[in-house]
Write a structure and sequence with these properties.
heterodimer, A: alpha/beta, Glutaredoxin, two-stranded antiparallel ribbon, B: mainly beta, Methylamine Dehydrogenase, Chain H, five-stranded mixed sheet, four-stranded antiparallel sheet, 5 helices, globular, disordered C terminus
Chain lengths: 229, 435
């Protein structure tokens, strides 16, 4: 592993942990995404609104932290799912680290929720199969996942297996290459986190300006109130 | 590496993103734009007479600078009007107010040569009768389309229609009316149900819509309409505040005289948006008061209202201190000081052409772009010449505009230019081989 890549990964993880532990969201010079602080509005009450389906949640071959390969659909259909695309070297605090930070908050809320904690699965799916091996995802998960909680950290075997998943979810990302043609270890992307119901339909899409644990929790409760969910 | 990181930041930050007037959910171009995409009305007797997306190279460092480098026609005339980019900036949605077609262009595969990716032809049927797709506004993974009319009476009552980025219909949200406020509070005299523009303040969970007029009017000859007292009554007088997350209207505000474009402040502490009224020539502030209530207040005058200057497009600076306001009828652009949002003061004005409609500025405000066309049946047809249907580009130093580029869209056999959106190779990671 290139030492620069390791540095980037620890920078990314450090950014999340820093925000999580010190709540520096209001003190940094960079404007941090709303998900790092309290909401400035009262979100609509769960069940008071609808979340119309936004299409089918795509399937594809994924690999878990143990290196086991299986269809992504094996992890949907039985529970409500909150799934975010990330890569562990992401250096932007308002990118993948935001997704992991909010999902970690969500994990805490769900653990405290008697009605939802066993009915929701979190998935962090890497879109960097080059660097994010199963072992790398396991290492990354140790900073976020409470033991026993249903939070899957997934990757894919290679670009060929990843691409259909990205296209299915409309998740754009562009890898950057050095002048010698090697992958530089970073990429441009737009942050997307998906809410998926038990019928494997996408019911909401959150981006950096919109992702917040309060609204995601209310959306989960809204779906739970629906028949068959 | 520095460039790489910049691009990572550029794409993954969505809290801040004509660059100053688009969805905050969208990646933005902070540096030099490479292209401007101009959605252009086809005109009888001009070129192929079809609506088209015209790509102009606007990067001074490019060999093609100042030239039309690409044009793609869509097979007919649709009353080409507004466009909007998806949140990932890969696709440009361009709608037609008459045929209700929405053309989705791929602008990422080769930013210099957009291609037609998909055409939505069942907008009216899918939406349950909405007519006149106007604003194409990016939400996370989705597009919100504001309508202008309906297929029952072709008047101004209308709705917003949500689509996925893939172009699949999601849901229709009708504007609140007196007979169905949908839970919204009617704060004044009006609840007309009209629509026009839509913008979002994510930090306040607020979606804001304005109101214009229906198909019967916007497809009518301008002189005929203005001489018809009944037609002149059929304009919107409202701005509606919506619960963005729930997609429900919460308050209907009186803003008389057809409030058009909405531009919201960027600063995290500035919980307000501006609009201007076409018929009453005023600047309006839509703001959250100290009690947490949304209010509307007229905060400035635009020209001599008795001469009907007809305010059209507006553009806010990234620091919320300046507002460009175009007045179509006299061809003027006017710069307002909005440092005090409750007291919008005109600083100076400059004539751009015989008519001027759209204005777009780069993120840093150093380049300002103008186009001329308003609506096919409202546009002026004389005097012929380079000031009638054009794209003009200016450098702006904070004090004056200095013209750097002009393209006569009639002489170039293109048509009548309307909305502009910027493109850049840097958005997509690397330059394509064609350049």
């Amino acid at each position: 592993m290139n030492p620069i890549h390791w540095s980037l990964r620890w920078l990314a993880i450090g950014a999340v942990l820093l925000c999580a532990s010190l709540k520096v969201w209001s003190e940094t010079t960079q404007v941090l995404a709303p998900g790092y602080g309290p909401l400035k509005f009262e979100p609509p009450a769960a069940g008071s609104y609808q979340l119309p389906p936004l299409g089918s949640a795509a399937d594809g071959a994924v690999i878990d932290m143990n290196g086991e390969s299986f269809p992504l659909h094996d992890l949907t259909g039985d529970k409500l799912v909150v799934m975010g695309f990330i890569y562990t070297h992401c250096p932007d605090v308002n990118g993948c680290p935001l997704a992991s930070y909010v999902m970690k908050q969500l994990q805490l809320r769900l653990l405290a929720s008697t009605d939802l904690k066993d009915r929701v699965r979190l998935i962090s799916l890497s879109f960097d199969p080059i660097q994010d091996t199963a072992a790398a995802m396991r290492d990354y998960s140790m900073h976020f996942r409470r033991q026993g909680f249903d939070w899957e950290f997934l990757t894919t075997k290679n670009e060929n297996e990843l691409q259909p998943i990205l296209e299915g979810y409309g998740q754009y990302r562009k890898m950057f290459y050095n002048e010698d043609g090697d992958y530089a270890g970073t990429m441009s992307h737009i942050l997307r986190v998906y809410l998926i119901d038990r019928d494997r339909r996408i019911r909401n899409i959150y981006s950096a300006g919109f992702l917040h644990v309060d609204t995601v929790m209310n959306d989960l409760r809204t779906l739970q109130m629906e028949p068959n969910q | 590496m520095r460039i790489t990181l910049l691009l990572v930041l550029l794409f993954s930050m969505s809290a801040i993103a004509d660059e100053t007037c688009m969805s905050p959910y969208m990646a933005k171009i902070e540096g030099q734009e490479d292209f401007v995409y101009v959605w252009t009305l086809g005109l009888e007797g001009v070129g192929d007479e079809q609506d088209k997306l015209v790509t102009v190279d606007v990067n001074p460092d490019s060999d093609g600078y100042g030239k039309v480098v690409h044009s793609i026609s869509v097979g007919g005339r649709n009353e080409a009007h507004h466009t909007g980019l998806t949140d990932d900036r890969r696709f440009l949605w361009a709608s037609g107010l008459d045929t209700n077609h929405i053309f989705i262009f791929d602008v990422h595969t080769d930013p210099a040569k957009p291609t037609l990716h998909k055409t939505i032809t069942d907008f009216v049927a899918k939406s349950g009768g909405v007519v006149g797709p106007h604003t194409n506004y990016a939400l996370p993974g989705r597009m919100m389309i504001s309508g202008l009319s309906n297929n029952r009476d072709h008047g101004g009552r209308t709705a917003m229609v949500e689509y996925t980025n893939a172009g699949d219909f999601v849901k229709t949200y009708w504007m609140p009316t007196d007979d169905n406020l949908q839970g919204a509070v009617k704060s004044g005299q009006y609840a007309d149900g009209f629509g026009y523009d839509v913008r979002v303040l994510p930090r306040r969970n607020a979606m804001v819509t304005s109101s214009f007029t229906g198909w019967n009017n916007y497809m009518m000859n301008l002189g005929t309409m203005m001489a018809d007292p009944e037609a002149m009554k059929a304009f919107g007088n409202t701005v509606v505040i919506w619960d963005m997350h729930a997609r429900k209207p919460t308050k209907v505000l009186d803003v008389p005289g057809a409030p058009l474009e909405i531009r919201c402040a960027w600063n995290e502490e500035n919980d307000y948006c501006f609009t201007t009224t076409a018929l009453t020539s005023k600047v309006w502030l839509i703001y959250l008061d100290e009690q947490g209530e949304w209010q509307a207040s007229a905060v400035g005058d635009i020209g001599d209202a008795t001469k009907i200057p007809l305010p059209v497009d507006i553009s806010i600076s990234n620091n919320d201190t300046r507002l460009w306001i175009n007045t179509w009828n006299d061809g003027m652009t006017r710069l307002y000081d909005i440092s005090d949002p409750f007291n919008a003061k005109q600083m100076w004005e400059q004539r751009i052409g015989e008519q001027v409609n759209m204005v777009s500025q780069s993120w840093d405000g150093k380049r300002v772009y103008y186009t001329s066309s308003l609506l096919a049946n409202w546009d002026k047809t004389a005097p012929a010449g380079p000031d009638l249907q054009y794209l003009k580009v200016y450098n702006f130093d904070g004090e004056k505009l200095e013209q750097t580029m002009a393209i006569d869209f009639i002489a170039e056999k293109l048509g009548a230019p309307h909305q502009m959106r910027f493109g850049a190779h840097a958005l997509y990671g690397e330059k394509v081989s064609a350049r």
